[in-house]
Amino acid sequence: MNPAREHFEGFGGHHMAIGITVKEANLPVLADQLEKAAEQAQLDFRQRPQLNLDATVAISELSTDLVTKIKQLGPFGMDNPVPKLAITNVRVTDVKAIGQNQAHLKFTANQAGQQLAAIAFQRGEIADKLSHLSNTIDLAGTLGINEWRGNVTLQLMTEDLKINGLQVVDQRTTNLAKNLFRDEQQYIFFNPKLLSLIEKQNLGRQLYLYDSPAIQAHQAVVLVDCPPSLKLLRQALQKWQPTQITTYFFHQTDYYASGMPSRTEFATVFAAVKRQPLTKAALLQLGKQLKIDQEKVNFMVKVFFELNFVKMEQGKLLINDEVQTHQLSEAPIYQKRLDLIQTQEKLLYSNGDQLATMLTQLLNVENEGVS
């Protein structure tokens, strides 16, 4: 700042700090000199400063007595910093942004049945992400005591945190609300019809079908809808090599909950068609008549078509007299539903830990038989 000191009202300090008083009119001069000084020093803001840690501890080892013993190492200052501790492989709960403008982060660290309150100043912006995170994290900071209304509790003043492994943010939903697209992300779809529907809303976001060449590898991705198979998901993940995966896994039909129609249900629908030809309108009422879910009825009719069991003549569905014997499982749509059932069971009904493990395996496992 020395080359511009004549523009300042007050100027002083020492090799570790500087104090400046400047008129508002001269703020551009201050900003310009800061830029010049940064260029001359060849500062690289992409390089993060290294945090030196004194010890790795478990939450079970921490106590107010330890805080007292640490204080005996003081007084602390530039040449005698407060000991910094690392706590590895913890899970976070009770995550919230606090303070003015929700600027600060507060959470509870959990490890082997033990808990520790933690706070991170100026990190409130990651509260939402952290609250949905499936991974364990490592923490670094200083240990202190929080006194509130007569209660004395341990608290970690968190200076940094590291997410372990592939970052998986679990936000699975059955409601694809607009606020899910508020961030600048790569939003990836497996269903082209759903992609077209969202595109019409003009959200101003990067929306891609899963096989789009525009998807940038080694970046974060948001999986908007549930893929039709784990094999397809694995192939996509290995192509993208994402650094972070956010899962919405939106789905309109829960095939796992609905299941595969039973052989009895297939026989019942087939018998209904055999009794008399059915119009399209009659087909739409067949589920109610037979007390079978209409979605299943529609599916079974498609299976019959693929196996050439039925045909349409003059707008009516009837049995094909030249039908040949086939196993129901020979129909491509039957196999597709099986894949959907198995995929939804794993992707929609797993807990957060299981989901993170599964996606990590899909990303790293090469063999075609992964399931």
Short summary of the structure?
This protein is an alpha/beta fold and 371 residues long.
Secondary structure layout plus pairing:
Layout: E1 10-14, E2 17-21, H1 27-40, E3 55-56, H2 64-71, E4 85-98, E5 104-111, E6 114-120, H3 127-131, E7 137-148, E8 151-163, E9 167-170, E10 186-189, H4 192-199, E11 206-209, E12 220-225, H5 230-240, E13 244-250, H6 255-258, H7 263-275, E14 278-279, H8 280-290, H9 294-306, E15 310-313, E16 316-319, H10 332-348, H11 352-364
Parallel strand pairs: 3-4, 6-8, 9-13, 10-11, 10-12, 12-13
Antiparallel strand pairs: 1-2, 4-5, 4-7, 5-6, 7-8, 14-16, 15-16
Helix pairs in contact: 5-11, 8-9
How does this model look, in words?
By secondary structure, this protein is of the alpha/beta class. The chain is 32% helix and 27% strand. The chain is built from 11 helices and 16 strands. It has helices at residues 27-40, 64-71, 127-131, 192-199, 230-240, 255-258, 263-275, 280-290, 294-306, 332-348, 352-364, and strands at residues 10-14, 17-21, 55-56, 85-98, 104-111, 114-120, 137-148, 151-163, 167-170, 186-189, 206-209, 220-225, 244-250, 278-279, 310-313, 316-319. It has a 5-stranded mixed beta barrel. Strand 7 (137-148) and strand 8 form a beta hairpin. Helix 5 packs across helix 11 (352-364).
